[in-house]
Amino acid sequence: MSGPALPGAAAEPLQYAVPGVGGVGPADAVRSIERVLLDGFDPEAAPARSAVPVPAGELLLMPAAAGPYAGVKIAGVAPANPALGLPRITGSYLLLDGPTLQPLALLDGAALTALRTPAVTAVALARLAAPEAEHLVVFGSGPQAYGHLDVLLAVPALRSLRRLTVVARDPGRAAALAAYGRKLGLAGSVGAPEAVAGADVVVCCTTARMPLFDGALVPAHAAVAAVGSHEPDAREVDEVLVGRAELYVEARSVAAREAGDLLLAGALGRRQVWNLAELVRGDALVPDGRPRFFKSVGMAWEDLAVAAEVYRASRV
After folding, report:
1. Which residues contact 25 (CB under 8 A, 6 or more apart)?
2. How far apart are CA 203 and CA 152, in angstroms?
3. Mean pLDDT across the chain
4. pTM of the model
């Protein structure tokens, strides 16, 4: 490797430990995403993700370049792994020097994903949630649900959150996440999908392929984020919510291929859809009288932004 690598980078990948990776915490990850966009990066022009079906699931190849760095994530999605006590998402991230493409560091790709996904959600919700938002409803009880709690509560714009309702298929795991929320200072409990009727913020981080709740129940002031899938035939929210909401994505070009929540509702090409750069730079409309819905599918530039931050932190 050229230059100092992250601790253990060559032989032992970094392990995910709430609430950060390699000395980079939730707030650092959020700032790294914002910085890339404020510096002028255009997510619409980012390279596409390659997906290759394999017997165990799917292999994803995600290259990106921005500023002084380039990199690529090779991720595996293995749906049967949780039943074996293994992570559903696996992989590695190779960070490169931008001008020379020389390797700089090897990171745990699953750990990186577990941090960057909620960081992207937090970037959006910090601008879409009502200033007085108190009640957070989380669908799911896996690593992304825990990661979202850590990251959302680290963002100053979301520190008004006081109450957590967890909705998940497994009652024991739902109760465990609610207890974790209580450790973070929230009034945590387990609830049903109808809890969205009293929500200020809703986060969906599940493997669901069908809508999780009735979109008509979501209050007009609420902000909703769905991060669970990157497939055109899978969705976590219904066409009712999509029809009522102002819509936001990481990039319209990627959403047109992968955002099932919007594709199955017939919204793309017929509705105004704002991208994350427009939202961060203050160019997007954020109305008060209707829900705001952010659909995330995950993009390689986001991994690069956080990986570069981890690398910079290792050199201090």
Report:
1. 19, 154
2. 10
3. 90
4. 0.89
